[in-house]
Amino acid sequence: MNARTYLIAAGLVLTMALTGCSTDGSVTMFSSGYGTTKDAGYQLPAIPIAKVPTKYHRQVVRYETKEQPGTIIVNTDEKFLYFVMPEGKAMRYGIGVGREGFEWKGTARIAMKREWPVWTPPAAMIGRQPELAKWRGGMPGGLSNPLGARALYLYNKNGDTGYRLHGTPEWNSIGHAMSSGCIRLINQDIIDLYSRAENGAKVIVM
Question: Please, are residues 55 and 75 in contact by the beta-carbon 8 Å criterion?
């Protein structure tokens, strides 16, 4: 390796370090993007990302689909959410999904996007967990709110599905079936997805 080639290679490594990502073949990892994050007056704590399996870290992957860029595809078996990008790529996020009896699938669209959303537990959930009745009128957004830092509201031809793509303070639920049907992401990931996804975007849950 001559001096010029060495300098170019060193510069590439430095650039990747500064942007918090690493590249492995066709995969670009963002494992360094889970530090303490200040957002809208809140300070999200750092995620101990080393405790989360690497496959669930945010990353750009090769992904062949006939769906248009901007489409969101959720694979509940794999516990992955794909945001379709041009040129056969997708941003992939690890997710938590509905536990047994709360699974769902279908096609919807993002009708609303909310930052630090209010959470209102459904009547059926209050019936199962009476202690949630105090939030019947809505739990204000915040660090302990179950919807986390962002929520994308899913509607279909019949209106509100009741399901959301949202953040969660329970980072250790990623990769598991633990929710009441909604698709949950690490807060740092839902902030990233929120910045990419547009109102009206197609969402396919497999």
Answer: no
Identify the pLDDT of residue 177. Answer: 86
Q: What is the CATH number of domain 25-205?
A: 2.40.440.10
Q: What residues are labeled active site?
A: 166, 182
The DSSP annotation for the chain comes to: --HHHHHHHHHHHHHHHHTT-EEETTEEE-TT--S-EEETTEEEPPP-GGGS-GGGS-EEEE---SSPTT-EEEETTTTEEEEEETTTEEEEEE-BEEPTT----EEEEEEEEEES--B---HHHHHH-GGGGGGTT-BPPSTT-TTTTEEEEEEETTEEEEEEEEEES-GGGTTSEEESS-EEEEHHHHHHHHHH--TT-EEEE-
Residues 134 and 116: their CA atoms lie apart, in Å, by 19
Domain segments of the chain: what residues? 25-205
Tens-digit pLDDT profile for residues 187-204: 999 999 999 999 999 999
Per-residue pLDDT 10s for the chain (206 aa) are: 444 433 334 333 333 333 344 444 457 999 999 999 999 999 999 999 999 999 999 999 999 999 999 999 999 999 999 999 999 999 999 999 976 545 678 999 999 999 999 988 778 888 888 878 878 888 899 998 999 999 999 999 999 998 999 999 999 999 998 776 689 999 999 999 999 999 999 999 99
